[in-house]
Description:
homotrimer
Amino acid sequence: MSIVTLTTDFGLADAYVGAMKGVILGIASGSDLVDLTHQIAPHNVREAAFALWASYRYFPSGTVHLVVVDPGVGGDRRAVALRTATAYFVGPDNGVFSYVKASETVAAVEILVRCYRLQHVSDTFHGRDVFAPAAAHLAAGVPLTQLGPPITDLQVLPPPQLAVRANRIVGEVLHADRFGNLITSIGQFEWAGKTARLTPVPWAAGGRPLEIEATRATIRIGDIELAGIRRSYAQAEVGDTLATIGGSGQLEIAIREGNAAKALGLRTGDSVDITIY
Amino acid sequence: MSIVTLTTDFGLADAYVGAMKGVILGIASGSDLVDLTHQIAPHNVREAAFALWASYRYFPSGTVHLVVVDPGVGGDRRAVALRTATAYFVGPDNGVFSYVKASETVAAVEILVRCYRLQHVSDTFHGRDVFAPAAAHLAAGVPLTQLGPPITDLQVLPPPQLAVRANRIVGEVLHADRFGNLITSIGQFEWAGKTARLTPVPWAAGGRPLEIEATRATIRIGDIELAGIRRSYAQAEVGDTLATIGGSGQLEIAIREGNAAKALGLRTGDSVDITIY
Amino acid sequence: MSIVTLTTDFGLADAYVGAMKGVILGIASGSDLVDLTHQIAPHNVREAAFALWASYRYFPSGTVHLVVVDPGVGGDRRAVALRTATAYFVGPDNGVFSYVKASETVAAVEILVRCYRLQHVSDTFHGRDVFAPAAAHLAAGVPLTQLGPPITDLQVLPPPQLAVRANRIVGEVLHADRFGNLITSIGQFEWAGKTARLTPVPWAAGGRPLEIEATRATIRIGDIELAGIRRSYAQAEVGDTLATIGGSGQLEIAIREGNAAKALGLRTGDSVDITIY
């Protein structure tokens, strides 16, 4: 019995996700279906790429990740399936797998073989008619190479802004979450005592590893300046703004028990930097 | 192991849906639970009827579809269960199964036998106390006829507006989805080359099949006029308004990578027509 | 195969809940995952405590209830796991289990044993790194006492306002649901003919059982006064305000097919009382 995750921009008000799940269970009976999110902003491929990257590592080996953020449906963008050492990915070839591809060795195919689609394929809902069946067949044990011919030229998004120098790192806000926490492109960090070890995210061009003593860093974002990187929200007073390392290993700007995105008026694409002294 | 889908107007902020799932899993252990949607507008029976109709066909044979949009709970509306050739349906007898009934031969019973309810039945939450147990017992293999006496006078909603003539079709907007795509009562279409074949939706009174050459149609909705039916969103430029055939086979008005409902100020019930020349 | 429910303030726009589910399925393969709600207001421990209390009773014996509303993550609040006669509970020790504890005999431990956590534990996402693994290990059959040492001093929230006297009951609004129904602290009621039997909710201090003849009660809330307790919404005219007994057994103020919270301008914490004559 295998796991299929679903990530879309369909929202939950319509029954589109439900129809996809019906298709999957009709092919891969008994598989476990897990929603990553269906609230990607409509057509926002980069947001989906990040959500997938931040969470796929937490699933057991063999999981199939289905992503349908597909502004080009019915056009000439390809339908693709990927295999890494531990997982499968299915979706449109529009860059949505960029960050996974930067992190792992992938084998990819174009989904072309008709018997792995629904019998009737609409021109407007490939999530249900093409991608869900392909994901389900992989979950049911069909080898990747059965779905279609290998390809080596997957679409890739331009990487987020991230420049790592010896005493300065410049990045951007990637995402504001439900709490208003601002997740940035600066990472991945891991704590080693009082030192935050930076191993630049796999999608960063020219990044280099770095160790930052938590108290010897100044973080600038918008009009504000924050002293030091805290281990967690609990190390700030309620209502105070802080920089910390979020659950996905990225530098995060937060207000303890508050909403940093709203209070600071910041959002995706805004610049953030760390100066180390 | 069988599948139970859930469609309600409960939203996801409260734990009402969760409680229903607890009840189902207590009776039909191991069944797969799939949410169609819980964001039906409160008490909007027609919206639920359409959401169900557009998606139930994609589930494997034997699936039980549980629908709880139930403004009459605690009054004298009946609790019913239906069986078609491939599926079961459970919910209040308020018209929510109208479109399924128009599409299929159904056998129906009134749910009256007490051992298929929870022991304590509230007067305000039959979703949890009456409908969820009935759906679960069907999923666990109890025959439909065990739940109560047969009935033949199911409530039916007035059909959506749809008039099909030789060179003009008049319908209405049924639903605006998350993308702002306006799904209309005009359908179901299927492409045959450049021709869109119309087989009037089963709930339409007096409709007749028709073939429309895609380029020889003018679509009018609100203040705008659209030339031709496109195969998909990708056949319009980004930002352009188009008429296409959506995933459920209905005529759909969309803006490529935009929100037609917002931009055009249109909504459910607004008139739409196609002139064929 | 066991059931794990999830209650958080994470919302559904981010993939945080998805990552937790990946962790659970990696440890307790094949368990059934049920969302209670992920839309608890950020950091609102009391709202989570109520949502959990109102729904956990509907799950089969052995279910594990995972609750992550955790403003103190990374601070010194403890991670705890509880066992009652029929269920398990896992979450932060911040009062979120107050109402369960008031209702049942519980055994509790502090989650300290490292092999029941993820190998790398972040300081900002214990839901994924500490609580999800603990819940999954319980679901997989690990005995409660393996997770850490027993504790007897669980944090408890101050109880909601509820004063029960012979001819007057004073309580407060606990929650407004999606329909705008105002669920109060006054309960739990059960109907016995025309009499509503009140057995004060387990968290009430000094409450006493009482029988209220439905027609001999006046309910006051905000500026309005309602005559009698109705059995269900259907006993009022569409648009009328009524007092009834909701699905969780609590006194509820509703407008039939309307939104009482909006129309009456009422919300959590507002006072409500019943006078019996």
